[in-house]
């Protein structure tokens, strides 16, 4: 059985997010009503699709359109998810096993570190340093990413600071991951 540590900030947000006048923590967009969505649609085509059980990895047509956006992409290797949280879960579940090293730039959105630990991964934090403009120190990157590292988790722009990693920081993380054959998510 997988046990995940409580995501304290998310629970706090869920308790208050619909009762406050101004929500400065929301990272999504305001949802549309069905009427607003239909007003944006092209003619009757939007109401013609069947509402039957869909393909869990996305329809062939959708995967082909997504693959066409990337040179050399194969639609059979495209998986459509219901959002970033599902994509993160599938990625971690596919890549992380007991004892695997997982390096995470922190602070961060806590879903992936929690998933990595729940799957038996060994978490190694790479602190983003305020004195470096919320960038990782090269020595911290080198210390956290080693031969045992299977996955490196990067959020860019960073959550919660909103800061973008510099090209130098990105190169340091990618270079360290490449040297040990780790995946970067």
Keywords:
five-stranded mixed beta sheet; 7 helices; 2 domains; Aspartate Aminotransferase, domain 2; alpha/beta; about 180 residues
Describe the structure.
The protein is α/β, with parallel strands linked by helices and 185 residues long. The chain has two domains: 55-94, no CATH class; 96-185, 3-Layer(aba) Sandwich (Aspartate Aminotransferase, domain 2), CATH 3.40.640.10. 35% of the residues lie in helices and 12% in strands. It contains seven helices and five strands; from the N terminus they run ααααβαββαβαβ. It has a five-stranded mixed beta sheet. The model has no long low-confidence stretch (mean pLDDT 89).
CATH class descriptor of the largest domain: Alpha Beta
Helix fraction bin:
25-40%
Name the overall outline.
globular
CATH architecture of the largest domain: 3-Layer(aba) Sandwich
Percent strand equals: 5-15%
Query: Uncertain runs with pLDDT below 50, 5 residues or more?
Result: none
CATH superfamily of the largest domain: Type I PLP-dependent aspartate aminotransferase-like (Major domain)
Mean pLDDT: 89
Instruction: Count the DSSP helices.
Output: 7
Structural class: alpha/beta
Total domains, how many?
Answer: 2
Classify the fold: give the CATH topology of the largest domain. Answer: Aspartate Aminotransferase, domain 2
Largest sheet: 5 strands, mixed
- The ordered H/E elements are HHHHEHEEHEHE
Rg calculated over all Cα atoms: 20 Å
- How many beta-strand segments? 5
Q: State the strand order across the main sheet.
A: 3-2-1-4-5
Q: Distance between the terminal alpha carbons, to the nearest Å?
A: 24 Å
């Amino acid at each position: 059985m997988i046990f995940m540590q409580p995501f304290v900030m998310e629970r706090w947000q869920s308790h208050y997010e619909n009762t406050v006048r101004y929500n400065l923590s929301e990272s999504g967009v305001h949802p549309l009503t069905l009427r607003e969505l239909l007003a944006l649609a092209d003619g009757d085509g939007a109401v013609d699709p069947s509402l039957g059980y869909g393909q869990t990895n996305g329809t062939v047509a959708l995967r082909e359109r997504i693959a066409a956006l990337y040179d050399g992409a194969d639609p059979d290797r495209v998986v459509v998810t219901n959002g970033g949280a599902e994509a993160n879960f599938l990625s971690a579940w596919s890549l992380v096993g007991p004892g695997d090293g997982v390096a995470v730039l922190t602070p961060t959105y806590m879903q992936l570190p929690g998933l990595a630990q729940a799957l038996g991964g060994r978490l190694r934090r790479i602190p983003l340093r305020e004195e470096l403009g919320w960038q990782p120190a090269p020595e911290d990157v080198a210390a956290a990413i080693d031969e045992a590292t299977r996955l490196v988790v990067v959020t860019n722009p960073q959550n919660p600071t909103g800061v973008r990693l510099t090209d130098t920081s990105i190169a340091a993380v990618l270079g360290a991951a490449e040297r040990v054959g780790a995946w970067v998510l």
